[in-house]
Amino acid sequence: MASLKPHTDWIHRSASDNKFERIEAFIAKHGYDMHRHDTYAIGTTLSGVQSFRYRGEERHSVPGGTMVLHPDEAHDGQAGTGEGFQYRMLYIEPALIQQILGGKPLPFVKHGISHDPRLYAATQALLPRMDHPMERLEEEDALFELAHALHAAAGASVHSGLFDYRAAERAREYIHSAMERPLTLAELADHSGRDRWSLSRDFRLLFGTSPYRYLTMRRLDLVRALLVQGQPLVSAALAAGFTDQSHMTRHFTKTYGMSPARWLRLQTPRALGAR
To answer: Where is the HTH araC/xylS-type domain (predicted)?
Structure first.
């Protein structure tokens, strides 16, 4: 990464066939408009001050702490000083955390920044240098530690009552099988064996977002993969199940805080597969 100009914005994505994404980036000034993911965003600031609005307050991340942004919580991102900031971030599906915790409500770290030492250590294990490959077993061990560190750092859950993890998981799997066409909540309910509104509630509790939002995010995952392969915006949008390019662009900008064209420009040659 040292060959990159220090005051030019860039994003380096680490290739992975798993259900999480690692990035390292440098932002000189303003990086991201308000947006939200359906994944956890967990990471650390390497240098500078990383400022972001989160749950109604301005937060400031510096080296030594851990950022934990809950799924579907709106946030932005910009430099807190004139020197810019560099950071590494892990975007991890709540479903992975669920598989480890056995269907417990998602851990919620209230303030977006934690100084819990176990959580910091678990995060660092999953965020080595971008050119450091991780073995599958190494990743799985680190994911186990991260899930339990999140649970401990979040404290007791505020959620109570019964929920059906297996039904919600069946609905989530069905969404993956039918991304290219419109879906209804009634259809998901039929395949999950749960009534519509109980399923909708359970899905939010267990996976951090609504069924439709989850479907949209999986379509955007496919769009990004197609863009880095060189596909035009319009064909990527249609292949992923969006009605047209503008439909995809609206969702992309709301999700990542920047347009698809700007996102693609910021990718480093290594992230693009050195095409």
So the answer is: 169-266
